[in-house]
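INFO batch 0412 | record 1 of 1 | parsing
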Amino acid sequence: MIHEYRLTAEDVRQQTMNTLIGNISLSANGYRCTTEMVLDVVLKASAESSSIEAVCEDLEDVADSNTIRDYLNEALDIAELRGQEAEMNTVLAASIPVTMKRTGIEVAIDFHDEPFYGKRPDLLAVTCRGKAKAGTTHFVRIASAYVIWRQVRLTLVVHYVLPGDDKLNILKHLLRRLKTLGFTFEVLYMDKGFASTAIIDYLTRQGQPTIIACPIRGKEGGTRALCKGRKSYLTEYVFTDGTPTTLAMVATLVPDKTGRRRRKWLAFIVIGLDWPPHKVYQEYRRRFGIECSYRLMRRVRASTTSRNPALRFFLLGIGLVLVNVWVFLRWEFARLMARGPRRIDPARLRFHRFTRLLIRSIEVIYGTVMSIPTHQSPQSVIY
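INFO prediction complete | emitting C-alpha cells
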C-alpha cells in the first residue's frame, strides 16, 4: 500500500528558507525585525513580482518597509559584490538533487542584462554599457551557467559582470565553479556574446566540445559571404586575425510579416564535434532553456526603484534561487512512479502553484490586511 504524502505550503517555504539561511550573510536582530522576517518579505515580494513596500503594507505583523530596506542596504554594499556573488552561488548549488548525475553534463552559458537608471559615478562604475533598451544604456549584467540533465535544469553559477571584465576570464570562472561542484561537461552551448577568438582558441586547446552562436557580419564579405545556396553545410573559416574554426551554416525557413516563409541563415562555431549542420542547430536549441530560466526569474523578481546595484543583484539572485527550488521540489515530489528513467508529471507542481503556496504560507504566519481605515460612514456606502 502506497501512503500519500502531501507537499504543503509550509514545506515549500521551509525548503526555500533553509536554502537561504546559513548561506547568506544577511542578518537582522531588531526588537521586532528578524532575519527570517526580512527574507519572508523579500520572498513574498519576489513571488508576487511586487515591491517590498507593497508587501509590508499587505502583511499585518511585519516591520515597516523602511526598516526592511535599511537591513538590506546595510548588508548589500557594492564594495562587497564578489562576496555576495560567492554566497549566491552557494545558495544556487543547495538545490542540486542528490541523485543528479554530474558527469557528461550539457551546460548553457549566457549573459543577461537588467536595466539600471542610476547616475552617480560610483554606481555607473559597477554597471555595463550596452545597446539602448528600456530607456537606458546602462545595465546590471550577469553571466550564468545553466546545467541540463533530464528534466532538471538548474542555474548553478552566476557572475556579476563589471565593466572591462574579460569574457575569457568570465568563462573560466563559470567553468571552474562547476568543476568545484563536481561537474564535467559533455557539450557547452554559448551565446554569440562569447564568440571571440580568444575563447575559441582556449576551448580548442582544452578539447572541450562546444557550440557557439556566431554573428553574421559584413555586407558582402565576412560571414555574410557564406550565406549562399539553399542547403545547410559545414565549412572551414578563418577569422580576420587568422584564427581557424569550423562553421555550421544552417538555412532555416521563417515566416515574414506577410506569413510567407523566407530563408534565414544561422551560423554556429563548432568545436570538437563532427555533427551535421541540422544536428548542431537542433542540439543548440537546448540552450534556449536558459532563456526560459530568465523568463521565469522575471516572474519572481521583486520590483525596486533602488539605485543600489548590489540590492538589484541580490533580488535577481533570489529570483534564480526560487526557480531552482521549484525545479528541486518538482523533481523530488512530482516524479511518476514507473519503470525506466524517472519522469516528472508537469501538472503536479506547476510554477504558478509553487509561488502561490509560498505566498500563502507567508501570509498565514504574518496575517494579511483585510480592511482599510475610512472616513465614510457605513450608511453612505451602497452595497
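INFO post-check: The mean pLDDT is 89.
INFO record closed
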